[in-house]
Specification:
Blueprint: H1 2-8, H2 10-36, H3 38-42, H4 46-61, H5 67-78, H6 82-105, H7 108-114, H8 119-127, H9 130-139, H10 145-154, H11 159-183, H12 196-221
């Protein structure tokens, strides 16, 4: 089965591997470029900020930087001004990522597994709670942004529910990341980084996400 999966779904496998690995490889490079130009970015006027935001959306969509890192960077550079810009970037990146992955996969992965499993029926049951599934998946900082774009697109999840749920789910973790990034401005020594509450907030978001997803799946299929 594995050989058939690889033979018939090369594009889909490549998409998942690419978005699983690329943000880690390119994230440090892109972050370095942004940090090197902190002063210039802070002096951008509105038009340049919008242009920067649009470019960032594409960078996020193709998996060149993790969303949490991006939120931290923009929070550090722009403070709370970054929040609406980051959320707009995520919205655009979600749409681009979904459309791109959907086009590349073209439904082949679902067709492959449908031959042996009732994937369509499973997907239809999940779609009834589609908004909550998307929102809870996005809530967790542990679930990679670009990989989720690919997964939702490959299983052909309803675009509207995916987008709406994604945006709602991204708000809490984005507010938290921008807040943490903004606090970096006041860091003067390594001791200032020793804070337990940020870790516990991130862990709490992940726990709520996984418990919520598990509860929905159990309710539907239990």
């Amino acid at each position: 089965m594995l050989k058939r999966l690889l033979a018939r779904n090369k594009r889909s496998i490549f998409i998942l591997l690419y978005f699983g690995i690329m943000p880690s490889i390119m994230g440090s490079i892109v972050s370095g470029i942004v940090i090197h130009n902190v002063i210039e970015i802070r002096n951008f006027d509105l038009i340049l900020l919008i242009g920067f935001n649009l470019v960032s959306s594409i960078v996020l969509a193709i998996g060149f930087i993790p969303t949490t890192v991006y939120s931290l960077l923009l929070g550090y550079i722009l403070g709370w001004t970054a929040l609406p810009l980051v959320l707009l970037s995520y919205t655009i990146a979600c749409a681009i990522g979904y459309i791109l992955c959907n086009w590349l996969d073209n439904g082949k992965m679902v067709e492959f597994f449908q031959e042996k499993y009732d994937i369509i029926s499973f997907k239809q049951k999940l779609e009834n709670t589609g908004f909550w599934i998307a929102a809870l998946c996005r809530l967790s900082p542990a679930l990679p942004f670009a990989v989720l774009n690919a997964v939702f697109a490959i299983v052909r999840f309803p675009f509207g529910k995916y987008m709406f749920g994604s945006m709602v789910g991204m708000i809490p973790r984005t507010v938290f990341a921008v807040f943490v990034g903004r606090s970096f401005i006041n860091i003067t020594s390594i001791d200032d980084l020793k804070s337990d509450y940020t870790l516990w907030i991130a862990i709490s978001l992940a726990i709520v996400s996984f418990i919520g997803i598990g509860w929905i799946v159990k309710r539907i299929f239990g």
